[in-house]
Structure formats: C-alpha cells, structure tokens
Amino acid sequence: MSKDHLMKKTGYGMLAAFYAPLLTDRQQTLLELYCDEDMSLSEIAEQLSISRQAVSDNLNRAYERLDELEDHLQLYNSFITLKKRQERCSQLLKQVKASAETRAYLEEAIATLNEGNEKGK
C-alpha cells in the first residue's frame, strides 16, 4: 500500500470520526470496514455480498460526502487547530518561572489543558 493511499485512508477515517452520523448506514459500515478494520475492497464485497465495484462506488460517494461536510462545517480542521493551540499553551506555561503559590496555579492550568490528552505531561 502506498504512503499516499495510507494517508488518504487514515484521513478519511479521521473525518468519519467527526461526521459518521451524517452519512448513510451503508457508508458508515463501509468506512468502518475499510478505514478502521483495514479490510480490502474484495473482503468487504464478500462480507456484504455485493460487488467489489459497488464497494468502491459507495466508498467514493462517502469520501465525497465527508469532503463536502468538512468544507462546510470545518469540524476536523477546527479540532486540529485547537489541539495545536492547546499544546502551545501548555508548552508556554511550563516555561514560566513562578513562586510556589503561583506554580500551583500554573500546574493546575497545565493539567486542565492536558485533560484527555494521552501525551499529557
């Protein structure tokens, strides 16, 4: 699998995480099998008892819909921007020289920024 193909697959998997409820049930299923389960088009076709071409056509329609949704709503782009800002704020707060009392507030602010972030500290 080429790097571009893998990036496309991963990218659409990420978009699906935001927009899956706005897709048809069939599109959600296909994206899950293709992007999340890493099944081939042939494997999906066999599992769903449809042609490989039908899988390909439906995936392409799902990709178009995801692109359209992201173009209009910008949820994924906003999420990425927010994550970058959060990481930068955390880095800056860690550089502040502060008294013991102020340090406690800074550490609380850093912890708040990092809540739910695997990288955390």
Q: How would you explain this protein's 3D organization?
A:
There is one protein chain. Helix 1 packs across helix 2 and helix 1 packs across helix 4 (52-73). The chain is mostly helical and 121 residues long. The chain is elongated and about 65 Å long. It has 2 domains: 3-73, Orthogonal Bundle (Arc Repressor Mutant, subunit A); 77-114. The protein has helices spanning 3-19, 25-36, 41-48, 52-73, 75-94, 100-114.
Gap from first CA to last CA: 35 Å
The total domain count is: 2
Helical coverage, percent range: over 70%
Give me the count of strands.
Answer: 0
> What is the CATH domain class of the largest domain?
Mainly Alpha
Radius of gyration: 20 Å
Largest beta-sheet characterization: none
Essential attributes:
single chain; mainly alpha; 6 helices
Summarize the structure.
By secondary structure, the protein is mainly α. The chain is 78% helix and 0% strand.
Structural topology:
Elements: H1 3-19, H2 25-36, H3 41-48, H4 52-73, H5 75-94, H6 100-114
